[in-house]
Amino acid sequence: MCNKPFVKETVFGSKAERAVYKALNTRWRNKFRLFPSLPFANVINFERMNLTNKEKEFLFKTSVDFTLCDKETYRPFLSIDFDGMGRGFSRNGEYVEILPSEDKYRKLKFNLKLKIAEQAHYNYFIVSYKETENLDPDLHLTIVDGIIGKILARDNLNKILQERGKELNRMIEDLSPFIEKEIIIDDWFTEREIEAEAEYNPIFRKELELEEELHKNGVIDWWKKYEPINERSIPISYLFRFLKFFSFDGTVVTKNILVQND
Q1: Cα distances (angstroms) measured from residue 4 to each of 1, 7, 11, 13
Q2: Tell me: the pLDDT tens digits for 22-33?
Q3: Which residues sit opposite 35 in a β-bridge?
Q4: 148: CB partners within 8 A, 6+ apart
Q5: Which of 121, 138, 155, 199 has an alpha carbon within 20 to 30 A of 48's alpha carbon?
Q6: Where are the domains of the chain?
């Protein structure tokens, strides 16, 4: 047996991690620099926090699987841990384990990282296979893409509002009834939210494309868009894709995939 050190074949812990990296880099390389396996301490400074020695020791040793950074400043924007072992995910600031792990402290470790990230107001998520699978074989979009896009849209909405604020002032300056102004303002803010989602969230853009496709084929009417939609109102050829994109939320999308696969 050779005791000499050797260079590993890859920096990734598994083929699945490598596949996730390639997919993320393909989708987001125009906006971010993507780094694998960065030390957690390189992303968040937690040294002044009131932590136990064991907690600090773990945080200095642990890493995050994928980190998206600003292309110019290299400031971390979002980090993701891929949980291939426990098949778990983060939800509402807590780690949800699906498969039991030999490491009895695994949940505590993930929850500590989630707590630190939340206190630092940093975007950190834990995902597994379902969140990184393509929602449709022909679309090359995943739930993770939707998460990243939604955060980008949220962060850029304030910028859009500031840049377009004068436009709103011009629209309401000659209006007198308060209720009329309120309606105009609400509609304007909704339009800006849609504008941000359409620009930064690839899943929302696909939703708009599918709605347009359904509209052109007479499946839905814009004036009746918010009426309840059921299976009889949509042709079978549209149903699977439409359900997955009509209202994006990580849990909802996953649920729809599972329902359709049963």
Answers
A1: 9, 10, 19, 21
A2: 999 999 999 999
A3: 67
A4: 28, 68, 78
A5: 155
A6: 15-132, 143-261
